[in-house]
């Protein structure tokens, strides 16, 4: 088999060359107590390739796949329809170039795609400049926090209580190395975001305020109010968006005063993929902040013959020459996912994105109205896009499990996202996209009536 290429003769020749009597002699520096004396208990012995494939297929059948169930999961990863043409186009030879397009003469396809991707993200977010993508939404969020510290020269970060808890944890983890002070609040199950409470935590030492839009409960905060309060104290407003399709229906963060807008681009062109790889988006409203941005930026130019061309204009991270003094040491982007995003966005166009967004919202409204009729269920939100929170009056984690046993992926329990907060235990986050049918909604409602009875 190609991944086990050595024969006994090969091993003997190698041992003879290095002067070792046997393979065990290579491990003499490892304490004997730490060495395995035989096969690992509980781990099956090696098998043929066909036998392993058969075994893995049997294991995969235990999964409840998104396409095989009434699907209402969201909380940062959304099931949308991705046209087959997206996968076909991203495999074209023009895009199969070097990972980092430092040599523009052989990477024009990749560079042009990234240039157009940046334009699409900037317009979507209502910003002046976007970079060529980042690893994912949560790390983009941290990079925005770090950038705000560089711009304002302050060390206090105010996080909204309605920021996705995974994003908040990434920020807290990275802040341990930069000694930033993180001011975080507990989320509250109420119809409207607590803007006044958030604004009250902003002081003169605050570098940035981080707000999610729509937030983790599906609500739509007033960003302009928060932006005005932050700017008054010399802080930047960072807005996190985990559902870019929403921006086909609601006002962009940049139009509402956001200084840095980041988010997860998975919804457009990228499937759920068991949690990754995903796509980080990053944009700034003021061009003067471009050199403080992480990642790479591609630009348009002309060659010696006056023909249009594309180049890697800025690589602000500079980790390859400055390291600890670099603007950022982020060492990757998500080029293939960015390409899929750009292709899907191009196929949709502005009108297509708006129609897609309105269909998401229509179905979500229908779902909220139907679930509100289920005894014991109350809808929390006054406003939402395609995701909203319901209260069940009992532990939502147990309800989700009972729904899954019925072949329904009924949503994300807030108890799973906030295991240490019992006040949120009866909350269920329900996401509805264009892939959800009205029959799926009725199936969920009927099952909830049974489970909650």
Q: How does the overall form come out from the CA principal axes?
A: globular
Order the strands across the largest sheet as they lie in space. Answer: 2-8-7-6-5-3-4
How many strand elements? 15
Q: Report the radius of gyration as a whole number of Å.
A: 25 Å
Low-confidence stretches: none
What is the makeup of the main sheet?
A: 7 strands, mixed
Structural class: alpha/beta
State which percent range the strand residues make up.
Answer: 5-15%
Compute the number of helices. 12
Order of helices and strands: HHEHHEHEHEHEHEEEEEHEEHEEHEH
Distance between the terminal alpha carbons, to the nearest Å?
Answer: 56 Å
Helix content: 25-40%
Summarize model confidence as the mean pLDDT. Answer: 93
Q: What descriptors fit this protein?
A:
14% strand; 7-stranded mixed beta sheet; 15 strands
Describe, in plain words, how this protein is organized in 3D:
With 453 residues, the protein is of the alpha/beta class. It has helices at residues 8-18, 49-60, 84-90, 108-125, 137-152, 165-178, 195-200, 223-232, 335-372, 396-405, 414-417, 438-452; strands at residues 70-71, 129-130, 156-159, 181-183, 206-212, 236-241, 260-264, 280-284, 296-302, 308-315, 378-379, 387-391, 408-409, 412-413, 427-431. Strands 2-8-7-6-5-3-4 form a 7-stranded mixed β-sheet, sandwiched between helices. Strands 11-12-15-14 form a 4-stranded antiparallel β-sheet. α4 (108-125) runs parallel beside α9 (335-372). The protein is globular.
């Amino acid at each position: 088999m190609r991944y086990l290429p050595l024969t006994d003769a090969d091993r003997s020749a190698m041992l003879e060359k290095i002067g070792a009597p046997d393979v065990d002699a290579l491990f003499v520096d490892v304490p004997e107590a730490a060495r395995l004396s035989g096969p690992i208990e509980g781990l099956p012995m090696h098998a043929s390739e066909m036998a392993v494939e058969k075994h893995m297929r049997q294991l995969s059948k235990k999964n409840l796949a998104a396409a095989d169930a009434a699907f209402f999961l969201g909380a940062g990863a959304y099931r949308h329809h991705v046209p087959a043409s997206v996968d076909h186009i991203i495999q074209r030879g023009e895009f199969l170039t070097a990972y980092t397009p430092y040599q523009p003469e052989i990477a024009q396809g990749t560079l042009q795609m990234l240039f157009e991707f940046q334009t699409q993200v900037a317009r979507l977010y209502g910003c002046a400049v976007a970079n060529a993508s980042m690893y994912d939404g949560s790390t983009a969020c941290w990079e925005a926090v770090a950038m705000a510290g560089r711009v304002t020269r302050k060390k206090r970060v105010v996080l909204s209580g309605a920021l996705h808890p995974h994003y908040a944890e990434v920020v807290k983890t990275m802040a341990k190395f930069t000694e930033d002070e993180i001011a975080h609040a507990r989320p509250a199950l109420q119809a409207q975001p607590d803007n006044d409470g958030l604004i009250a935590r902003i002081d003169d030492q605050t570098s940035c305020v981080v707000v999610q839009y729509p937030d983790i409960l599906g609500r739509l905060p007033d960003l302009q109010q928060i932006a005005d309060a932050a700017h008054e104290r010399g802080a930047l407003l960072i807005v996190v968006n985990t559902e870019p399709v929403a921006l086909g229906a609601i006002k962009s963060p940049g139009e509402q005063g956001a200084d840095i807008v980041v988010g997860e681009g998975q919804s457009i062109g990228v499937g759920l993929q068991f949690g990754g790889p995903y796509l980080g988006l990053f944009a700034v409203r003021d061009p003067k902040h471009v050199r403080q941005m992480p990642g790479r930026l591609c630009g348009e130019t002309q060659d010696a013959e006056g023909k249009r061309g594309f180049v890697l204009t800025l690589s602000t991270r500079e980790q390859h020459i400055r390291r600890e003094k670099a603007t950022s040491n982020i060492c990757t982007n998500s080029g293939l996912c960015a390409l899929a995003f750009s292709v899907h966005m191009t196929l949709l166009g502005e009108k297509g994105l708006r129609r897609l967004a309105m269909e998401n919202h229509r179905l979500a409204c229908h779902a909220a109205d139907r679930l509100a009729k289920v005894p014991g269920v109350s809808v929390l939100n006054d406003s939402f896009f395609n995701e909203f929170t319901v209260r069940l009056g009992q532990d939502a984690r147990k309800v989700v499990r009972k729904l899954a046993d019925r072949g329904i992926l009924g949503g994300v329990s807030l108890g799973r996202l906030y295991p240490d907060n019992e006040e949120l235990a009866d909350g269920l986050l329900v996401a509805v996209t264009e892939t959800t049918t009205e029959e799926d909604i009725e199936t969920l409602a009927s099952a909830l009536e049974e489970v909650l009875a």
